[in-house]
Amino acid sequence: MSLRHRLVGAARQRLKETLRPVVRRALAPSRSSLPASLWGLEFVPGRGLCLEGVSLAELTQRWGSPLHVVHLAALRRNVERFLAVPPGRAGGCEVYYSYKTNPVPGVLSFMHERGVGAEVISAYEMWLALQLGVPPERIVYNGPVKSDASIREAIERGIGLLAANHAEELDVFARHAAELKRRPRVAVRVSTGHGWTAQFGTPIAGGAALAAFRKARELGTLDVVGLHAHRGATIRTEAELEGFVAAVLDFTDTLHRELGLNLEVLDLGGSLCTPTVEHVEPRAWRLNQTFQRDLPAPDAAAALSIERYVARVVEQVESHFERRGRARPRIFLEPGRAMTGDTQLLLGRVHTLKAGPERTWAVMDMGINHAECVRNEYHQLLHVDRPEAQLAARPYTVVGPICTPGDTLYNAVRLPELRGGDTLAIMDAGAYCVPFATSFSFPQPAIIALDNGEERLLRRAETFEDQVAFDATQPPTAFRAAS
Ligand SMILES: Cc1ncc(COP(=O)(O)O)c(C=O)c1O
Questions:
Q1: With contact defined as beta carbons under 8 Å apart, do 331 and 268 qualify?
Q2: For 312-336, what is the mean pLDDT?
Q3: Are residues 173 and 254 in the same domain?
Q4: Has residue 466 been placed in a domain?
Q5: Which domain range does residue 396 map to?
Q6: Which end of the chain has the smaller Cβ count within 10 Å, N or C?
């Protein structure tokens, strides 16, 4: 590197250091952390953070670290809220959990036992739902890639709703239906202009969705009962919800007017937020990286709650059909993150601390290999052992075990002083953490459930042998490592 480059680099660094405290103070977010009590956690001196009287640090001693902990009381609460009939209404919504969000059989069965159906997007997920005893009529089959074999199976078993992701799929459904001499219950997925479009759904704008419904009916072998729409972009406010639902309802009028179609099912997909999680804007990341300015924590109390979401959906759909004198369709919801996001936490230990000039690296045994979504969402990080102690003078950069700078969970986060062996908790790990996890160099951790203070294993930790179980070349037994 030339002398000029070195001088410019050093000047930049000095400028950053000078500006850091000024920027941190001037642009401090109004909220930079969320209290542990939001998740029902209590601090017990000498035992650290406890859930239902169970010390989180002791959980890692018994079950290993890292460790996923599913809080069943929280999951029960969320299920009940989604299934509740809003006050003053004759009926509520039918709920189909989005399998891809947290495809752990122990978690799925818990919801199924309480009246939740399955929303699946692959042959594997449909197989899993059937294996878990979900009746075929309680399964919604979505997704852009459905194998021919799985479409045939869905039709033969009488799956509750087979949703065509794009108009081209209707021909495939119709061909299999004719061959099997069955009339599957079909929905057409549309995109509304609110949220995702791309490969998902047929756009209402420009008439493509209407043409798809017309075609679906003309094919003659499909029972066209439903309209499917999934917003994709997370819904945090009533205004976002209402705009999306209004666009869908408007299209139901078009279907009635143009095709005389009275829908039996209105499937509004998922997308409701987890109140304590929020997408972090690029500017907030940059300020955090460059000036160690705290990330803004979400305003959980202001986020649309499950109760309010269900009440607003039912109210908006009912009043729409009432005004038009038409029967209100059954309302299907496919929650993912809102159902399980805040019902699971991930525990990990500080492997070592590495001091740098302006920060301390906390090198953890958990990383983006377990919690990839922390890279673009706010997830509260809690010091499990001494959460009430004074904050350390310098921020921590919390990194994982994978050998890449990309394995950074938190760029600059304020925590009470850490020591090697301390336990940290990443909150809201119940959506998209487990399915997006990789076994990159480190096997996956165990998943346990906590129910009324009782601990139960849902999934054992992966072993070294699991990592090579599918390989044609197996290590000689004598040299296999004990994991
Ligand atoms: C069709 C469909 N339904 C439901 C969901 C669940 O979404 P969320 O976790 O945002 O509620 C998804 C997620 O991508 C989806 O694609």
A1: yes
A2: 97
A3: yes
A4: no
A5: 29-69+342-458
A6: N
Based on the fold, state whether residues 65 and 209 are members of the same structural domain: no
Å from CA of 456 to ligand 1 middle: 28
Q: How far apart are CA 436 and CA 451, in angstroms?
A: 25
Kindly report, residue by residue over 227-263, the tens digit of the pLDDT.
Answer: 999 999 999 999 999 999 999 999 999 999 999 999 9
Phi-psi region of 408 (alpha: psi -120 to 50; beta: other; left: phi over 0): beta
CB of 119 sitting under 6 A from ligand 1: yes
How confident is the model over 160-177, as a mean pLDDT? Answer: 96
With a 6 Å cutoff on the Cβ, whether 335 touches ligand 1 is yes
Which 3 state secondary structure label does DSSP give 328? coil
Token pair listed for 332: 């299907």
CATH number at residue 452: 2.40.37.10
Q: Is residue 364 domain-shared with residue 445, that is, in the same domain?
A: yes
Taking alpha carbons only, the member of 214, 226, 140 closest to residue 186 is: 226
Q: Is 228 in the pocket of ligand 1 (CB under 6 A)?
A: no
pTM more than 0.90: yes
- The 10 Å Cβ neighbour count of residue 113 is 11
Buried b (16+ CB within 10 A) or exposed e, 245-279: bebbbebbeebeeeeebebbbbbbbbbbbbbbbbe
- DSSP code string of 25-89: HHT--S-----GGGGTEEEETTTEEEETTEEHHHHHHHH-SSEEEEEHHHHHHHHHHHHPPPTT-
